[in-house]
Amino acid sequence: MKDQALFDKIDFHLIKVLNTVLTERSVSRAAMRLGMYQSAVSAALKRLRELAGDPILVRSGSGMVPTDAGLRMLEPSAHILRSAGMLFSDAKGFDVATAQVTFKIAASDYLDPLFLPQLVAQIKAQAPRCHIDIQSLSAESDYRTHLAQGQVDIVIGNWADLPDDLHMGRLFGDEVVCMVAKDHPAVRRKWDPKNLARWLEAEHIAPTATHPGAKGVIDEHLATLGLQRNITVRCPHFGLMPSMVASSLLVMTTGRQYCERFAKLLPLRILPSPIEFPRMMYYQLWHERTHASNASKWLRERIKSVATTLRKS
Protein backbone atom coordinates (compact mmCIF):
# COMPACT_ATOMS: atom_id res chain seq x y z
CA MET A 1 0.00 0.00 0.00
CA LYS A 2 2.86 2.32 0.88
CA ASP A 3 4.63 1.50 -2.41
CA GLN A 4 1.42 2.13 -4.34
CA ALA A 5 1.00 5.54 -2.69
CA LEU A 6 4.57 6.43 -3.70
CA PHE A 7 4.02 5.18 -7.22
CA ASP A 8 0.93 7.35 -7.59
CA LYS A 9 3.04 10.45 -6.93
CA ILE A 10 5.48 9.72 -9.79
CA ASP A 11 4.58 10.86 -13.29
CA PHE A 12 6.39 10.46 -16.62
CA HIS A 13 7.57 14.07 -16.57
CA LEU A 14 9.43 13.48 -13.30
CA ILE A 15 11.17 10.41 -14.72
CA LYS A 16 12.28 12.47 -17.72
CA VAL A 17 13.68 15.22 -15.47
CA LEU A 18 15.39 12.62 -13.26
CA ASN A 19 17.17 10.94 -16.15
CA THR A 20 18.18 14.24 -17.74
CA VAL A 21 19.69 15.80 -14.61
CA LEU A 22 21.53 12.56 -13.86
CA THR A 23 22.86 12.41 -17.41
CA GLU A 24 23.80 16.10 -17.69
CA ARG A 25 24.90 16.41 -14.04
CA SER A 26 23.73 20.01 -14.21
CA VAL A 27 20.36 21.64 -13.57
CA SER A 28 21.03 24.41 -16.08
CA ARG A 29 22.08 22.02 -18.89
CA ALA A 30 19.13 19.74 -18.10
CA ALA A 31 16.79 22.75 -18.36
CA MET A 32 18.21 23.64 -21.81
CA ARG A 33 17.88 20.05 -23.03
CA LEU A 34 14.32 19.74 -21.73
CA GLY A 35 13.25 23.17 -22.96
CA MET A 36 12.20 24.18 -19.44
CA TYR A 37 12.94 27.09 -17.12
CA GLN A 38 15.77 26.33 -14.70
CA SER A 39 13.49 27.09 -11.78
CA ALA A 40 11.01 24.44 -13.00
CA VAL A 41 13.76 21.81 -13.21
CA SER A 42 14.94 22.77 -9.72
CA ALA A 43 11.37 22.39 -8.41
CA ALA A 44 11.06 18.97 -10.04
CA LEU A 45 14.43 17.89 -8.61
CA LYS A 46 13.28 19.01 -5.15
CA ARG A 47 10.18 16.86 -5.49
CA LEU A 48 12.29 13.91 -6.65
CA ARG A 49 14.57 14.30 -3.64
CA GLU A 50 11.57 14.23 -1.32
CA LEU A 51 10.20 11.10 -2.96
CA ALA A 52 13.59 9.33 -2.89
CA GLY A 53 14.67 10.53 0.55
CA ASP A 54 18.06 11.21 -1.06
CA PRO A 55 19.81 14.26 -2.60
CA ILE A 56 20.21 12.36 -5.91
CA LEU A 57 22.64 15.02 -7.22
CA VAL A 58 25.23 16.79 -5.00
CA ARG A 59 27.92 19.41 -5.54
CA SER A 60 31.50 18.34 -6.11
CA GLY A 61 33.95 21.17 -6.71
CA SER A 62 32.58 23.33 -9.51
CA GLY A 63 30.22 20.66 -10.76
CA MET A 64 27.66 18.13 -9.58
CA VAL A 65 27.77 14.33 -9.27
CA PRO A 66 25.07 11.71 -8.65
CA THR A 67 24.84 10.05 -5.25
CA ASP A 68 24.97 6.26 -5.01
CA ALA A 69 21.17 6.22 -5.05
CA GLY A 70 21.19 8.56 -8.05
CA LEU A 71 23.53 6.27 -9.96
CA ARG A 72 21.22 3.33 -9.27
CA MET A 73 18.33 5.35 -10.73
CA LEU A 74 20.10 6.13 -14.01
CA GLU A 75 19.55 2.88 -15.92
CA PRO A 76 16.00 2.18 -14.62
CA SER A 77 14.92 5.70 -15.60
CA ALA A 78 16.51 5.28 -19.05
CA HIS A 79 14.72 1.94 -19.44
CA ILE A 80 11.37 3.54 -18.57
CA LEU A 81 11.92 6.27 -21.16
CA ARG A 82 12.91 3.74 -23.85
CA SER A 83 9.88 1.59 -23.08
CA ALA A 84 7.57 4.62 -23.16
CA GLY A 85 9.00 5.61 -26.52
CA MET A 86 8.24 2.15 -27.90
CA LEU A 87 4.77 1.95 -26.36
CA PHE A 88 2.86 3.38 -29.32
CA SER A 89 5.65 3.50 -31.89
CA ASP A 90 4.52 0.33 -33.67
CA ALA A 91 1.02 1.71 -34.14
CA LYS A 92 2.47 4.80 -35.87
CA GLY A 93 5.08 3.04 -37.93
CA PHE A 94 8.29 1.04 -37.75
CA ASP A 95 11.46 3.09 -38.10
CA VAL A 96 14.12 0.47 -38.85
CA ALA A 97 16.98 2.85 -38.17
CA THR A 98 15.96 3.54 -34.56
CA ALA A 99 13.70 0.61 -33.60
CA GLN A 100 14.74 -1.41 -30.56
CA VAL A 101 12.65 -4.56 -30.66
CA THR A 102 13.52 -8.23 -30.29
CA PHE A 103 12.50 -10.48 -33.18
CA LYS A 104 11.78 -14.01 -31.95
CA ILE A 105 12.10 -16.56 -34.75
CA ALA A 106 11.63 -20.33 -34.49
CA ALA A 107 13.12 -22.27 -37.39
CA SER A 108 13.88 -25.86 -38.27
CA ASP A 109 17.52 -26.82 -38.83
CA TYR A 110 16.71 -28.49 -42.17
CA LEU A 111 16.31 -25.10 -43.83
CA ASP A 112 18.84 -24.02 -46.42
CA PRO A 113 21.97 -23.52 -44.26
CA LEU A 114 22.40 -20.03 -45.74
CA PHE A 115 18.86 -18.94 -44.84
CA LEU A 116 19.26 -17.87 -41.21
CA PRO A 117 22.76 -16.34 -41.65
CA GLN A 118 21.49 -14.19 -44.51
CA LEU A 119 18.33 -13.26 -42.61
CA VAL A 120 20.36 -12.16 -39.57
CA ALA A 121 22.75 -10.18 -41.79
CA GLN A 122 19.85 -8.40 -43.51
CA ILE A 123 18.08 -7.55 -40.26
CA LYS A 124 21.24 -6.24 -38.58
CA ALA A 125 22.19 -4.19 -41.65
CA GLN A 126 18.80 -2.48 -41.86
CA ALA A 127 17.71 -2.44 -38.20
CA PRO A 128 21.02 -2.29 -36.29
CA ARG A 129 19.45 -1.61 -32.88
CA CYS A 130 17.09 -4.59 -33.00
CA HIS A 131 17.83 -7.90 -31.30
CA ILE A 132 17.25 -11.37 -32.75
CA ASP A 133 16.31 -14.47 -30.76
CA ILE A 134 16.48 -17.64 -32.89
CA GLN A 135 14.85 -20.68 -31.34
CA SER A 136 14.98 -24.27 -32.52
CA LEU A 137 11.89 -25.81 -34.06
CA SER A 138 11.28 -29.53 -33.81
CA ALA A 139 8.27 -31.67 -34.63
CA GLU A 140 7.17 -31.76 -31.02
CA SER A 141 7.38 -27.98 -30.52
CA ASP A 142 4.07 -26.48 -29.51
CA TYR A 143 4.57 -23.58 -31.90
CA ARG A 144 0.86 -22.64 -31.93
CA THR A 145 0.95 -21.89 -28.19
CA HIS A 146 4.32 -20.16 -28.46
CA LEU A 147 2.99 -17.88 -31.22
CA ALA A 148 -0.20 -17.11 -29.30
CA GLN A 149 1.63 -16.30 -26.07
CA GLY A 150 4.29 -14.12 -27.69
CA GLN A 151 7.21 -16.47 -27.05
CA VAL A 152 7.73 -16.56 -30.83
CA ASP A 153 6.84 -14.04 -33.57
CA ILE A 154 7.45 -16.16 -36.67
CA VAL A 155 7.82 -19.91 -37.28
CA ILE A 156 9.69 -21.10 -40.39
CA GLY A 157 9.59 -24.71 -41.57
CA ASN A 158 7.83 -27.22 -43.79
CA TRP A 159 4.61 -29.03 -43.00
CA ALA A 160 2.62 -31.61 -44.93
CA ASP A 161 -0.59 -30.35 -43.31
CA LEU A 162 -0.71 -26.62 -42.62
CA PRO A 163 -2.61 -25.38 -39.54
CA ASP A 164 -5.74 -23.46 -40.46
CA ASP A 165 -5.70 -21.22 -37.38
CA LEU A 166 -2.53 -19.30 -38.33
CA HIS A 167 -1.53 -16.89 -41.07
CA MET A 168 0.77 -18.42 -43.68
CA GLY A 169 3.23 -17.12 -46.25
CA ARG A 170 4.81 -19.48 -48.80
CA LEU A 171 8.58 -19.15 -49.09
CA PHE A 172 9.81 -21.79 -51.54
CA GLY A 173 9.42 -25.36 -52.72
CA ASP A 174 12.25 -27.85 -53.04
CA GLU A 175 12.79 -31.06 -55.00
CA VAL A 176 13.60 -34.17 -52.95
CA VAL A 177 16.94 -35.74 -53.91
CA CYS A 178 19.51 -38.14 -52.46
CA MET A 179 22.97 -37.17 -51.25
CA VAL A 180 25.84 -39.67 -50.95
CA ALA A 181 29.63 -39.66 -50.63
CA LYS A 182 31.44 -38.97 -53.92
CA ASP A 183 32.76 -42.57 -54.03
CA HIS A 184 29.45 -44.24 -53.13
CA PRO A 185 28.63 -47.18 -55.48
CA ALA A 186 25.38 -45.47 -56.47
CA VAL A 187 27.35 -42.67 -58.15
CA ARG A 188 28.41 -45.21 -60.80
CA ARG A 189 25.39 -47.51 -60.89
CA LYS A 190 22.66 -44.90 -60.33
CA TRP A 191 19.24 -45.59 -58.89
CA ASP A 192 16.01 -45.65 -60.82
CA PRO A 193 12.51 -47.08 -60.28
CA LYS A 194 13.64 -50.39 -61.83
CA ASN A 195 16.14 -51.08 -59.05
CA LEU A 196 14.16 -49.48 -56.25
CA ALA A 197 14.91 -52.40 -53.92
CA ARG A 198 18.60 -51.52 -54.01
CA TRP A 199 17.83 -47.99 -52.84
CA LEU A 200 15.51 -49.20 -50.07
CA GLU A 201 18.13 -51.69 -48.85
CA ALA A 202 20.98 -49.14 -48.82
CA GLU A 203 22.02 -47.66 -45.49
CA HIS A 204 19.99 -44.52 -44.87
CA ILE A 205 20.43 -41.71 -42.35
CA ALA A 206 17.38 -39.87 -41.00
CA PRO A 207 16.49 -37.36 -38.27
CA THR A 208 15.86 -38.80 -34.81
CA ALA A 209 12.20 -39.66 -34.29
CA THR A 210 10.43 -37.24 -31.96
CA HIS A 211 8.61 -40.14 -30.30
CA PRO A 212 8.34 -43.92 -30.81
CA GLY A 213 6.76 -44.69 -34.18
CA ALA A 214 7.01 -41.11 -35.47
CA LYS A 215 7.91 -40.64 -39.14
CA GLY A 216 9.29 -37.69 -41.06
CA VAL A 217 7.92 -36.46 -44.39
CA ILE A 218 10.10 -38.90 -46.38
CA ASP A 219 9.04 -42.00 -44.45
CA GLU A 220 5.42 -40.85 -44.27
CA HIS A 221 5.31 -40.81 -48.08
CA LEU A 222 7.05 -44.17 -48.33
CA ALA A 223 4.48 -45.63 -45.92
CA THR A 224 1.64 -44.47 -48.20
CA LEU A 225 3.29 -46.53 -50.96
CA GLY A 226 3.70 -49.54 -48.69
CA LEU A 227 7.49 -49.13 -48.68
CA GLN A 228 10.12 -48.86 -45.95
CA ARG A 229 13.78 -47.88 -46.25
CA ASN A 230 16.68 -49.28 -44.23
CA ILE A 231 17.51 -46.54 -41.69
CA THR A 232 20.74 -47.49 -39.91
CA VAL A 233 21.63 -44.08 -38.43
CA ARG A 234 19.43 -41.49 -36.76
CA CYS A 235 20.72 -38.08 -35.72
CA PRO A 236 18.97 -35.20 -33.92
CA HIS A 237 21.30 -32.61 -35.51
CA PHE A 238 20.39 -32.16 -39.17
CA GLY A 239 23.39 -29.93 -39.82
CA LEU A 240 25.83 -32.72 -38.88
CA MET A 241 24.32 -35.34 -41.17
CA PRO A 242 26.08 -34.28 -44.42
CA SER A 243 29.49 -34.78 -42.78
CA MET A 244 28.43 -38.28 -41.70
CA VAL A 245 27.31 -39.04 -45.24
CA ALA A 246 30.58 -37.78 -46.75
CA SER A 247 32.65 -40.32 -44.80
CA SER A 248 30.39 -43.38 -45.14
CA LEU A 249 28.01 -45.33 -47.38
CA LEU A 250 24.98 -43.59 -45.89
CA VAL A 251 22.24 -42.10 -48.04
CA MET A 252 20.59 -38.81 -47.06
CA THR A 253 17.27 -37.97 -48.69
CA THR A 254 16.11 -34.36 -48.39
CA GLY A 255 15.66 -31.12 -50.34
CA ARG A 256 17.98 -30.24 -53.24
CA GLN A 257 18.66 -26.69 -52.05
CA TYR A 258 19.93 -27.97 -48.70
CA CYS A 259 22.08 -30.63 -50.37
CA GLU A 260 23.61 -28.24 -52.88
CA ARG A 261 25.03 -26.03 -50.11
CA PHE A 262 26.91 -28.94 -48.55
CA ALA A 263 27.93 -30.52 -51.87
CA LYS A 264 30.05 -27.39 -52.47
CA LEU A 265 31.88 -27.87 -49.17
CA LEU A 266 32.21 -31.65 -48.74
CA PRO A 267 33.07 -34.65 -50.99
CA LEU A 268 29.42 -35.38 -51.77
CA ARG A 269 27.29 -36.11 -54.81
CA ILE A 270 23.61 -35.38 -55.41
CA LEU A 271 21.58 -38.09 -57.15
CA PRO A 272 17.96 -38.17 -58.32
CA SER A 273 15.64 -40.06 -56.03
CA PRO A 274 14.32 -43.32 -57.54
CA ILE A 275 10.93 -42.42 -56.06
CA GLU A 276 9.02 -39.27 -56.92
CA PHE A 277 8.32 -37.43 -53.67
CA PRO A 278 6.03 -34.41 -53.28
CA ARG A 279 8.01 -31.17 -53.27
CA MET A 280 9.10 -30.04 -49.81
CA MET A 281 7.23 -26.77 -49.23
CA TYR A 282 8.56 -24.17 -46.79
CA TYR A 283 6.40 -21.53 -45.12
CA GLN A 284 6.44 -18.82 -42.50
CA LEU A 285 3.59 -18.92 -40.01
CA TRP A 286 2.38 -16.18 -37.67
CA HIS A 287 -0.48 -15.53 -35.28
CA GLU A 288 -3.30 -13.01 -35.57
CA ARG A 289 -1.68 -11.33 -32.53
CA THR A 290 1.12 -9.93 -34.73
CA HIS A 291 -0.71 -9.79 -38.07
CA ALA A 292 -1.18 -5.99 -38.02
CA SER A 293 2.12 -5.18 -36.31
CA ASN A 294 4.35 -2.97 -38.45
CA ALA A 295 7.48 -4.52 -36.96
CA SER A 296 6.22 -8.02 -37.73
CA LYS A 297 5.20 -7.01 -41.26
CA TRP A 298 8.73 -5.74 -41.81
CA LEU A 299 10.21 -8.98 -40.47
CA ARG A 300 7.97 -11.09 -42.72
CA GLU A 301 9.11 -9.09 -45.74
CA ARG A 302 12.75 -9.67 -44.80
CA ILE A 303 12.13 -13.43 -44.53
CA LYS A 304 10.39 -13.46 -47.91
CA SER A 305 13.22 -11.43 -49.45
CA VAL A 306 15.89 -13.87 -48.24
CA ALA A 307 13.88 -16.85 -49.51
CA THR A 308 13.57 -15.21 -52.94
CA THR A 309 17.30 -14.44 -53.06
CA LEU A 310 18.27 -18.01 -52.15
CA ARG A 311 15.91 -19.47 -54.75
CA LYS A 312 17.76 -17.55 -57.46
CA SER A 313 21.25 -18.44 -56.20
Write the layout of secondary structure elements.
Layout: H1 2-8, H2 12-24, H3 27-34, H4 38-52, E1 57-60, E2 63-66, H5 68-87, H6 89-92, E3 102-107, H7 115-126, E4 131-136, H8 143-148, E5 154-158, E6 167-174, E7 176-181, H9 185-189, H10 196-201, E8 204-207, H11 217-224, E9 231-235, H12 241-246, E10 251-255, H13 256-263, E11 268-272, E12 280-286, H14 294-312
Structural summary, described in words:
- There is one protein chain.
- With 313 residues, the protein is an alpha/beta fold.
- It folds into three domains: 2-87, Arc Repressor Mutant, subunit A; 102-173 and 281-312, 3-Layer(aba) Sandwich (D-Maltodextrin-Binding Protein, domain 2); 176-278, Periplasmic binding protein-like II (D-Maltodextrin-Binding Protein, domain 2), CATH 3.40.190.
- The protein contains 14 helices and twelve strands.
- It has helices spanning 2-8, 12-24, 27-34, 38-52, 68-87, 89-92, 115-126, 143-148, 185-189, 196-201, 217-224, 241-246, 256-263, 294-312, and strands at residues 57-60, 63-66, 102-107, 131-136, 154-158, 167-174, 176-181, 204-207, 231-235, 251-255, 268-272, 280-286.
- It has a five-stranded mixed beta sheet with strand order 4-3-5-12-6, covered by helices on one side. It has a five-stranded mixed beta sheet with strand order 9-8-10-7-11.
- The protein is elongated.
- It starts with a helix and ends with a helix.
- The model has no long low-confidence stretch (mean pLDDT 88).
